[in-house]
Design brief:
Low-confidence stretches: 322-329
Mean pLDDT: 92
Number of strands: 14
Strand content: 25-35%
Radius of gyration: 23 Å
Order of helices and strands: EHHEEEEHEEHEEEEEHHEE
């Protein structure tokens, strides 16, 4: 028999969802049967599948030991260094400046040292996260950026923050701004591009069309030219929609691929520049809540920016200015 006390991070969940996460080896059919037969109880009493758990509730599981995964000898994130470049941090969230070359999550080919591994290790060392004490929650990322793109990634430290941030991301109440360098000089110094993006999974590439296509999704990309120099342009981008490779593909589709982008640009343009990855950085994040954000309402109206963007050396270290940019400390 196992007995667990519901923590704040587990509160509010349905019993079946909690047990599914906490005991992943337990088949769902047996889970439901165990609840019916009172082999799973809450506060010593019979419960329902839909019972909502509250902080402090005691969950008793009269199940065979084979369904409980053994305690790992080492923590899953222990292979990653606990080093994170923090843009901003409080008790609920962490804004990390991910450097180009680092994956945000593990993939089929690489695992063990990703941004989320580093963040979890960092929080573990600070005493803010202990996987042995959590049954169904782990600090998680709210947004993703490509491996070779750097910039701000949002991590939620608790379940309440994660729920709010996921909802605000879905409702586009988190404004993301990018800096990038493109080849060429744009005729319009400020504009909103519109198109239809189709993702070809087999080629692992997206294609932008001017007119609707089957399977295509609407994209909108707003840009502003900040500087021009020797056939290159520095742009600030605001993503009005968030699709795979949207910025890279959209700008390439109008004849201005990103400097260093071999996937959507051309080797001929990039040859001799010394750039082997795209000059693209998610440098600024603004919290622009249009409805109540509960425990995160205090963030509304705040903006955070990365101070060190690696490719700004091309423009003599130019840094975007403006009162709305308040780098986190």
């Amino acid at each position: 028999m196992k007995q667990w006390i519901v923590t704040e991070n587990d509160a509010g969940q349905r019993l079946d969802k909690f047990v599914t996460k906490a005991v992943p080896l337990l088949p769902k059919s047996l889970l439901y049967k165990s609840i019916r037969l009172k082999r799973i109880k809450v506060n010593g009493k019979r419960c329902e599948i839909s019972t909502r758990l509250a902080k402090g509730d005691v969950v008793d599981l009269y199940l065979k030991d084979e369904f409980f995964a053994p305690v790992p000898k080492k923590l899953p994130f222990s292979g990653a260094p606990p080093k994170v470049t923090v843009v901003y941090e409080d008790e609920n969230i962490l804004l990390a400046d991910k450097k180009p070359g680092l994956l945000v999550h593990s993939d089929d080919k690489e695992y063990g040292d990703t941004l989320i591994d580093r963040i979890q290790h960092y929080l573990y060392n600070k005493g803010e996260y202990d996987p042995q004490q959590e049954r169904s929650f782990a600090p998680a990322l709210v947004n993703r950026i490509d491996r070779n793109t750097g910039g701000i990634v949002i991590a939620a430290k608790n379940a309440a923050a994660l729920r709010v941030l996921n909802e605000k991301m879905k409702e586009r109440e988190l404004k993301k701004y990018y800096l990038c360098i493109v080849h060429g000089t744009l005729a319009k110094k400020e504009a909103t591009l519109e198109g239809f993006l189709y993702k070809d999974a087999d080629k692992n590439k997206v294609f932008v069309h001017r007119h609707p296509v089957e399977g295509g999704r609407t994209i909108r990309t707003r840009y502003r030219v900040l500087r021009e120099k020797k056939g290159l342009s520095l742009l600030e981008i605001e993503l009005l929609t968030g699709r795979t490779h949207q910025i890279r593909a959209h700008l390439a589709s109008i004849g201005h691929p990103l400097l260093g982008d071999g996937k959507y640009g051309t080797n001929a343009l990039n040859k001799g520049t010394g750039y082997r990855k795209q000059a693209l950085y998610s440098y600024k994040l603004a919290f622009a809540f249009e409805s109540d954000a509960g425990p995160l309402q205090y963030l509304n109206g705040r903006t955070f920016a990365v101070e060190d963007v690696w490719f700004l050396k091309e423009f003599d270290g130019f840094r975007p200015a403006g009162e709305e940019i308040r780098p986190g400390r």
